[in-house]
Queue: 4 jobs
Job 1
Amino acid sequence: MMTEIGELLEGRFIHELKNRFLCEVEIDDSVFECYVPSSCHLANFLKLEGKRVLLRKNSTPKSRTEYALVAMPYKRSYLLLNSSLANRAVEACIHSRRLYFLGKRSSIRKEHRVDGYKTDLFISDTKTIIEVKSIIALDEAAVFPTVYSERALKQLKQLKELLQRGYKVWYFIVSLNPYVQKIQLDSRSELIKLLLECEGLGMRTKGFTCRLKGKQVSLDSEIPLEMLS
């Protein structure tokens, strides 16, 4: 299953601005401020200056920027630069056979609050929370987490409490690079230590890649997770 992201156009990336949600791009010899839908500066993962990028027009009338960053050409495909597309790819795939292990899933809620926690997806049938984390990496083995995230730590602490209250939790780590072959969990990270505590309470963790094809994004392959000491 795929999710439609609309018409795409090509530009050239100039640089990121101080505000991590903004960058400048060149389109047809004109410079535009562009929205960067990423939880942290892309410079932490990539050197984008001067590179070709794909953009889409913002559909929100009151948006500060006219365009949003989507992807960059990479090998024979694209590397996604919009972290929210991982969530959309999972959501589009939720009823497919690929996610059969989730069990009954006739009632799906997006960004539903469960005891104060804002879920990415919530399956009401089975009280199952799905948390989606996206990663950007160029190597075939992607390390998770790539950067320190106080927000991600807080989320896992909340998920730990919800597991103790009887909720089911699936933690999906999704590579925005379709060529990543595996995800290595950094055992030295505080986040992974907390993730393991959650797994001890029943949380399940899976790795996936997603891919841009034309104007659609899909959950591409399931990839293995391994512990990196």
Job 2
Amino acid sequence: MKLVMNEEEELVDPTLFKQIVGSLRYLFNSRPDIAYAVGIISRFMSEPRASHLLAAKRVMRYISGTLEFDILFLKCLNENYMELISYSDADWFGDKHDRKTTSGYLFKFLNAPISWCAKKQPVVALSTCESEYIVGCMAACREVWLENILKKVEIEVRRPIALFIDNKSAINLSRNLVLHGRSKHIEAKFQFLREQMNKEALQIVQCSSELQLADIFMKTLKVDKFIKLA
């Protein structure tokens, strides 16, 4: 299902719609499985239409049927398993209106999700490689922040931290400086990923699309795959 702004469609009560979306945005701080859907309907807050309200109600019905879903944080007795891992992915040209890419990343600590994101990229990516590289940089910035937070509570995580990406070209771009000439148009702030690689603070690992947990944050999925990732 692709939501768009259709001016011919019936308008709905904007106050009611904003109340629903506001409540859902509060809820997805503890429910990563609805982050993408809530992010999509949030784009239509100014002039919500009937299809947007219908999508919001479908999210609410999903929540009603999954009230038992929660995040379990296990007690770790072995310091060798203090591992922080991350996944990042991008839906290139996912937005049909402005052609910007939707990014998604997920961080897991002790096998429990602790940080996630589903948002549009600030620039228009020219290729899938570039879109994946940009979201990888976003994940690298979050990795530094999370590692500093964990240090403040006296938790040392194993380094290098693994970042799982399913796009081989983006991985090669982060590793191979020879490719820099082909990526000069990428803004300087997005070269942070390569810097973290050179410092050996981050390790880029290729994973298959079937095992890419970040998929749930940046595109619509078939029911079976959504259930598997959720």
Job 3
Amino acid sequence: MTRRIAIFSPRGGSGVSTVVANLALALVDAGVETACVDLEGHGALRLHLGLLDSQDQSAGGRAPEAPDGLRLIESDGSRASEWQDGALAGQTPARVVLVDVPRTRPDLQAEILATTDAWLCVLPADAMAVAMAPQVRKQLAATRQAFVVINHVDPRFALRREAGLFLADIFAARLVGSIRKDEAINEAQANLERLPIFSPHSAAWADFRRLAAAGREIAAGLRPANSAQL
């Protein structure tokens, strides 16, 4: 049975596309057939998945391919079956569908959140996320299967450390993981490569693998344990 997880944030710059792509890669690495859905059309997921051709690719060279078990679906949202089932051209539905919820399409946001099986809200460890926490908590109360991941965690800096700890406290019952701020993510993008290939031992990739364990439990309709490291 296909399980649909909407991944979103109440504000821009939270790293939603980063989480969608790398969580998808981590789920596939764990043997879970996964589709990730880009409804915004900016190619962000392609970049994170290393599916963009390099500038110096030789003429006639073969374009990069997604790893086995992973599908990238790019849609304007007009065909609901594309993002609800993670299937195209007669393919069987994917086991898990991760939807990158576009902030630029509030009409589509409401539809996605109403028709997915679970929500994963991405909150960066910063002052703005702290200020928005009461609003987010109220929104997440609409469904039992709503969870939080804290992104850009960096204990070296007091503001990020304290913001992360505050968010972890206020969302304790829904917190399922955290992603450390890691330059390897940006470097992988700059090299048009997937994070687990470019930097398989990076801190962020270790965090995404832990988040994938929570993702499997969410897909099974369970409430995963908190795996955040703050």
Job 4
Amino acid sequence: MNSNDKFKDDGYIIYKNLISEKLIDDFFKIFYSDFINSTESYPQMNNQEWGKVDISKNGFLKDPLADIHLFKFINSTHKDFTNSALNILCSNSIKSALKEIDLVEKHSIMMSMFFDQNKGTPAHQDWYYLDSLPNGNLIGAWIALEDINEKAGRFYVVPKSQNFFLELSYEEQNTPDLYEEIVFEYIKKNKLKVYSPELKKGDVLFWNSGTIHGSMKTIDPKLSRKSFTAHFLPAGFDFVQNRYSNKIRKFKTFSHNDVDCRITRSVLNIKSPNPRSTSKFGSQSY
């Protein structure tokens, strides 16, 4: 079975050793020499606010970085840091895998995240937060930047769940907690398989925007779970608020290695070196 057929059938696919160790090591060299010592605010994923670097007692960045591909716009001193992340997210290997998965020649990055540690994420479908039009063609990518220990809280998917569609009330469409409870009950009631694969440094799991997924909670806080997440829109498709509104969202881009990268409103609205913004940065954490 080829990659396109497997992805259509299962709703996800894993590529082993897709990202070179050199690209990953280059990123962390700059992460530890550049970003970790910075003092300005940055967009935090869990808090959905701007905040400064905060390191846990175990030495990990507490809050994930939202839209890491845009950090050079937040502060020009982070140009090398951003580019080292983009060298992974826009790598030729990622581009080739995406083309094999959906047979589309080109894709755009719509959002990205970096995780040093993990808090766990409830099961959900991406199209509740962002999607393509026609629906169900957005592709997520979870990139392991180290060997992920099971006790660190592994990423998981529910195989073959990509066509599961919930009829939601207006309140449920606008209240993530209610939506996540519905998904949880659906998995429990139907005794669906939750698959949390062992992913090693350089492995990438791609999933469809309709595939139910999330991440297990960390059991051992002494363990990191270094990883990237990105969402890719295939060329020829519109970007929408979510599957339930289908409101087309226009966006500006810049290019890296011939990949168009979306510039979010949170960055476009920057007016000071240490901005505070009410803009939200994206969908769920992973």
